[in-house]
């Protein structure tokens, strides 16, 4: 499916949650949607999933707008960090409701994940721990097999082992049946290697949209004496630098080849370091 975002604006009185944002997501891919709190990520996901209307501009999915469009929203599954399900429903009834809504629902996968996360089908949502409620969201999101699956901080309350299992299963399911997965997270270091393309929102504007591999190839970590490294990075955009005992390592926008030509040791920048830097830097810096 093709998602076209055209001049998307959402205004709350004098505050712009999104301000004239335009981009296209085309075809199955795992997208990382990053940004600090208040950047506009959740507003974008709410408009994409047809839950709210834009103030101006629009989102089109294969030429149609999602708001009040059941045929289209059957192709979109949004799992937020909480409050996804009615509190008085039992787990088994939550799963039944979603299995009716999503035409491609995979009950076999749902059963497998219920066992993996040790969920009691007869428990009411209101009795679940935060982690178990997150697990239920993950089960619905993956089992929906929705062509556009959106996860917004879906793992609150899950420990590191449970989160790792989620990432592994998500990747397995994506490889078995490709779809658009949009993943919004603050735990960049855990999931950065899953992303094929990265979008960064800041203060309601899109400040970066780039293939993850291109990001990796446009930066490098250079090491050498303080004098050598300082001379090399002069005039370049520096992500971070560290020094110890007369030696320096700097993360910089440059190629590994260029650094090696200057006699420096060079290797790739850890992608999570790069994404954290890009997410936190000031707009226009």
TrEMBL record:
UniProt protein name: ABC transporter ATP-binding protein
Q: Which CDD domains match?
A: ABC_DR_subfamily_A (cd03230)
Q: Which Pfam families match?
A: ABC_tran
User: Any idea where the ABC transporter domain is?
Assistant: 3-228
Citing just one GO molecular function, the answer is: ATP hydrolysis activity
What PROSITE patterns does this protein map onto? ABC_TRANSPORTER_2
What does the UniProt keyword field contain?
Answer: ATP-binding, Nucleotide-binding
Q: Source organism lineage?
A: Bacteria, Bacillati, Bacillota, Bacilli, Bacillales
Gene3D superfamilies, per this entry? Answer: P-loop containing nucleotide triphosphate hydrolases (3.40.50.300)
Q: Which residues cross the membrane?
A: none
| UniProt-listed InterPro entries | AAA+_ATPase, ABC_transporter-like_ATP-bd, P-loop_NTPase
